[in-house]
Amino acid sequence: MNAYTWHAFADGPQLAAALAGHVAGRLTKAIAERGTGLLAVSGGTTPAKFFATLSKIPIAWDRVTVTLVDERFVPASSPRSNAGLVAANLLQNAAAAARFVPLYHEAAGIETAAASDDAALQSLPWPLDVVVLGMGTDGHTASFFPDADNLAKLLDPSSTRIVLPVHAASAGEPRLTLALARILAAGFIALHIEGEDKRTAFDGAMGPGARKPIRAVIDAAPKAVEVFWAP
Ligand SMILES: O=C(O)[C@H](O)[C@@H](O)[C@H](O)[C@H](O)COP(=O)(O)O
Predict the structure, then answer these.
(1) pLDDT at 2
(2) In CA terms, which of 12, 20, 30, 161 is 20 to 30 Å from 58?
(3) With a threshold of 0.90, does the pTM exceed it?
């Protein structure tokens, strides 16, 4: 489809307020329509302000399940943990009442962890109502890294997997990621990027040239991806 809607803001706090408002609205609508809301968020360094803003919005958080778009294969106590980032910034204030389903747990290896995640996450109230993606300047999103050894499988829209393992030299650690199909089925797909480097990287990914994972997601998305950007 290759459709996206570009929402530019003067600064991070204004972006955070707008994105949090959209996400809270979508979750409230989902709760009204089906009694529950399912949200998947990305980690990294960008989302902390957005998480803090969203955490203060008084919706029926006790009807919301939060999970991760992807996770590094590290315990929640690690500074690299996305679960740790979500616990410290999103599952606070009003949002502390939400149920959180992590991706990392002790396992012999990433493949074992991904397989048991697949079983554990079956019971979530799919499809996602909201997914918030991030993006690296290399054009990765979720843990769909350009150098992932199973990128074709990660980007297979027909995959029935929920969680897949990722080995990619550029990723730092082995990763666990939601499969593309789960992301694309979300009612609202947001991409949250900040800084000139990421705007340049995004524009580059939308142009001709080597196809980056973020482009594969936007092209495969059944509805426009809502891009939220601030300098
Ligand atoms: O685990 C992660 O790192 C994220 O889920 C990943 O997809 C992130 O969104 C991008 O890497 C951007 O990260 P920054 O926000 O740190 O630039």
Answers:
(1) 61
(2) 12
(3) yes
